[in-house]
Structures are given as C-alpha cells and as structure tokens.
Design a protein that fits this description.
This protein is mainly β and about 120 residues long. The protein is about 0% helix and about 50% strand.
C-alpha cells in the first residue's frame, strides 16, 4: 500500500491561489490513478479531481472546473492540485488518494493521506 502525505494548505483570501502537493512513497506510484477529495465540516466528502496513471486523463468536480488543475510528476512520485480563483466555499480539508483507476467515487481509492486544511476568507 502506498503512503501519501499532503502539503501546501493554508489560509488565503478569496480570489487567491494555492497549490497542494501529495508525495507518495513506494515504487508503484506510476501504476496508480490519483485523486483529490475534500470535506468541509458537517458535509460529506466531495470529489474534486482525478488523474490517470500517465496523466493523460483528468476529471473534475463541477464546482471546481476551470479553476482547479490536477497534475502529476511520476519521476517525483507527486501529484499536485493547483487551485485558482478560490472561494470561501472551497474551505475544507483536502485529501489525496490513490487507486487503480481515475474515478469520481471515493470508494475506488484504497490509500489516503491525512489531509491538509484549506481556508478561504471572504
């Protein structure tokens, strides 16, 4: 099982940008699809973005399309989430996840990071 560690969260004003990183351990990173999910207090976990093993396929949740970009560097065992035009409703704990295929369902991802807090002030 791959170990995942997120970083890059923090406090930002509305309209600002942040880039999250997720570093993976192990030699199987390039075999895995990666995803980002988020969870705000009192709400269910929400799909944000996912990327295929080679990076050719990406999918986004409707609420982040055209604002967020997922990418990966297999040589560095790292997946990124570039977040632009941030809104207060983007405030949540953001989780990185790994799984066999790029889907929007958190049930398809077997490995999860500990999460990183993103707070967007108005």
């Amino acid at each position: 099982q791959v170990q995942l560690v997120e970083s890059g969260g923090g406090l930002v004003q509305a309209g600002g940008s942040l880039r999250l990183s997720c570093a993976a351990s192990g030699r199987t990173f390039s075999w895995l699809a990666m995803g980002w999910f988020r969870q705000a207090p009192g709400l269910e976990r929400e799909f944000v973005a996912t990327i295929s093993r080679g990076g050719l396929m990406t999918y986004y949740g409707d609420s982040v399309k055209r604002r967020f970009t997922i990418s990966r560097d297999n040589a560095k065992n790292t997946v990124y989430l570039q977040m632009n035009s941030l809104k207060p409703e983007d405030t949540a704990v953001y989780y990185c996840a790994a799984g066999p295929r790029p889907t929007m369902s958190d049930l398809d991802f077997g490995s999860w990071g500990q999460g990183t807090q993103v707070t967007v002030s108005s």
